[in-house]
Structure formats: structure tokens, C-alpha cells
Design a protein that fits this description.
three-stranded antiparallel beta sheet, 4 domains, alpha+beta, 9 helices, HSP40/DNAj peptide-binding domain
Amino acid sequence: MNDYYEDLGVSREASPEEIKRAYRKLARTLHPDVNPGEDAEERFKRVSQAYDVLSDETKRRQYDMGGDPYGGAHDGFGAGFSFSDIMEQFFGAQAGGGGRGPRSRRSRGQDGLVGLEVDLATAVFGGQEDLTIDTATACAACDGDGAQPGTGRRTCDTCAGRGEIQQVQRSFLGQVMTSRPCPTCQGFGEVIPSPCHECSGQGRVRSRRTMTVKIPAGVDSGTRIHLSGEGEVGPGGGPAGDLFVELRVADHDTFTRRGDDLHASVPVPMTAAALGVDMSFMTFDGEQEITIKRGTQPGDTIILPGLGVTHLRHEGRGDLIIHVDVRTPTRLDADQEDLLRRLASVRDEEQPDGQLDDVDAGFVGRLRSAFKR
């Protein structure tokens, strides 16, 4: 087996760009058309084969591991390596007379991405939202055809409908025929003598439309909804792309979301926290009765199971977690201050030492007695 690295004059660590530059340099000097030497043709084949292997990641890996990159079958230029490949490397155009044919004016439209804000209640239960977007829609005047109604299209005179033109170029390899898109029809093979006045021959126009978007229960900020076929209509009245709606859940005055749980804070007076009280709390599911237990401390929580956010991908809902915010009075009149001082005296808390005992069962009774004096 030939040493392909030696044939190209590069190291085994050579980058793809280094391999490509080495091959181009050798091909210019070794091709039989420019080098009539006896061994030039054979060396050119070896260089071409080396480039075919080393420029292909899979073949190069197999060769470096000691295997046959062609699986035992190849010609002088290497499997899958042809003279037209050389031309495309040097000229960036299709070599030879084989044409690709005209391309269609009708193509798929682009996908779109828009943002939509929803409130927290919609995220909890799901719902529907109206979305207004500016996008490309099919031209109603020409029905996407691009030609002014009553006219039509005609075959391009420059390329005779082929969509491409051919030209001969001289190179170090001799005369080479290349193909490129027709400049008159831009490769379509036909022209529109009278373009539609509304869309200028594009078959689509910009317009504003409103659609209703279904919001699944459990969505969160960053969730994307995929609307198939709701994107831009393609050129020439081609099929529409898709539309992706990225959601943002607005902040709520009462509730904060953490995962699928909802958190809220309820203010409770110090006296109510000490004595205990039943109170009403408004949730997304309506008014709920909650119990503030006797001796409730700041930061204690009350959990209402199943009143949080609906799980997006499975059944059920998260919880509603209420954090009790015990409020200590900041302004006291004379009678209120006297009552608290008597309470502090009863509880021997006039000079706290920072080592308060746990609230005991007799505290509530002494508190009631103090207020009755």
C-alpha cells in the first residue's frame, strides 16, 4: 500500500487545509497536460489517490489504523473520486455537460419564533390566548403564482428553460466546461413578463393576522409551543413553515411559583398567632379555610395539597404552600403597652436572656387572664 502522506509530502498530523494545499500544488505541476514527463501521469494518479483518502475523515481513519480505505476495490483515482471532483475543488462549479435542471420557484417558507405572555392562572389551568403576528401570507391577487392575473410565464430565452448556462474555461488542465445558474431567470428556467402588482412576482405578501393559541396546563416561562404550518408562506406560494411560540409567565401579586408548587405569604397578628384563629384565604380554586394553630411561629407553613400548578407531562397538581408572616405591632397606645407589659411580667420575660423556653400549654391560659384584668 502506498504511503499517502509521503505521496503528498505532508506529516501524519497534517490538518485538512494543509492536505488540500499540498494536493493543489502537486496537481498543478504533475498533471499530464502540463507535465509531459514519463512518470508524471503515474505520480498524478498516486497524488490524487492520496488526496482522496486523506481528505475523507472515514477513509483517513481506516488507513491510519492499517486497513484498506477502499475495502479492496479502487482505481487509480480512488473510489468515489472523479475528474469532476477535481474541477469542483478548483473552480467551484459543476464540470462537464451534465445539468441540474431548472429549480422551482415554489419553496417552503421559513419557521418563525414569537413571544407570548400569559398570566399565572393560565399556566396553572391552561387556556387560550389570541396572538397577532406580522408574517408572509399567500398573495390573494395572483393566488401565489407571481404573475399578474391574465398573463403568465414564458420559457427563458437565455437558457432555453434549462435554468443554467454552460461556458468553456481554459485551465492548466485544458479546456473545461462548467455550468452555472442562468443570470436572466436566476435558475428557474422561465421568466414572468408581467409580475403581480401586489407581490412583485414573489407570490406572497406581508400581512398581519390573528390566531388563537391553545395553552396547555402546566406551562412555564421558556416553554415553546409548536404550531405546524403557521409560519411564513414560502416563495411562489410554497407551503408555510412552522411557528414556535415561546411563553413567558407574568409575575403574580400573591403567588410565587417554584416548580409546580405555589407559594404565598399570609400576614397574621401576633395575638392571632399566639391564640390560634381560622381564616379565609383566596386561591386559584376559590376561597379556602385555613387554620392558624396556637403558638404559630414566623415562617411556619400551611400546605394545601393539590392546589398548585398542574403537572405538564403527567396527572395531578403541585401544592399550595402558605408561609405565615407573624406581624409584631410597632405602634401601641398606653392601654396596649400596659397589657403587653403585664403579659411580659406574667411570663417572666421582662428581661429576656436569649434562652426562651418553648411555648408551653399554660401560656394561652395566662395570656387570656392577662387580657381580662
